[in-house]
Amino acid sequence: MNETIRLLNERKSVRVYAPGPLAPEVKTAILNAALQAPTAGNMTLYTILDITDQALKERLSETCDHQPFIATAPLVLIFCADYHRWFTLFEQDEPATRRPGEGDLLLAVSDALIAAQNAVTAAEALGVGSCYIGDILENFEIHKELLKLPAYVLPAAMVVFGVPTEGQKARPKPPRFKVEDVVCENAYAERDFAAMLRERQGLSPEEFEKWIGGFRSFKWDCEFSKEMTHSVQAMLKAWQEGN
Fold it and tell me: 15: burial class by Cβ within 10 Å (0-12, 13-18, 19+)?
């Protein structure tokens, strides 16, 4: 099998790391790989925050849904959608230039996420595990102040990196859907999603009824989901108002 395809197939989230920092050349390689990602119009609509301050890591481990392993990660990167730089330059050239809109935000978020995934794939190739922290989308007002984010800069993703322990290496990767479950030809097609989930999770119909209720409570009807919605609304408001 092609080595890149093998890495993509085997990669899984890693939340426990071997002690010690990453070698400087490994960190540089990960960051450089992020910058090689496709980007809209070659504009690089993102900024990467390299969180090296231990006190800040510990604060983020609390604001991002109380996950202590964030504070122990040797490398913590926050990928920010960033139209601040370009808008500032455009405004200097033409004071009456339009402000960034929602479409610009989605482009910048896409740029940031593509760069993040490049970093994740490069890390995997170098024997470094990673874990996306979606909870960076929570507590926007706190994170905006904590990270000193100017107008038109929003956190799109946080990824933590470290060399996995032997236990993490041995831990099975959670199952994924089959290609035919997810890929539709030419137009959207309704699928029996419950059946897809039952097969993926290896559950009987009776087991599935119990499982989906617990999963709904854990992922959907939960406080972090409500806070994430609040924070994204605050992000959009800040973007629209230029704050």
Answer: buried
- Residue 159's contacts (CB-CB under 8 Å, 6 or more residues apart) are 76, 77, 79, 116, 119, 120, 130, 131, 132, 133
Sign of CA dihedral 7, 77, 140, 60: positive
* Distance set, CA 236 to CA 11, 53, 66, 105 (Å): 32, 28, 25, 9
Whole-angstrom distance, CA of residue 12 vs CA of residue 26: 19
Domain ranges within the chain, ordered by starting residue:
3-174
Distance between CA atoms of residues 194 and 208, nearest Å? 8
Q: Compute how many other C-beta atoms are within 10 angstroms of the C-beta atom of residue 91.
A: 13
* Averaged pLDDT score across all residues of the chain: 96
List pLDDT tens digits, range 39-79: 999 999 999 999 999 999 999 999 999 999 999 999 999 99
Residue 120 in tokens: 């994740």
Say what the pTM is: 0.96
Residue 183: which H helix or E strand, with range? Answer: none
3-174: CATH topology is NADH Oxidase (3.40.109)
* Token pair in block for residue 10: 């085997």
CB atoms near residue 70 (< 10 Å): 25
What digits encode the pLDDT tens for the residues 115-127? 999 999 999 999 9
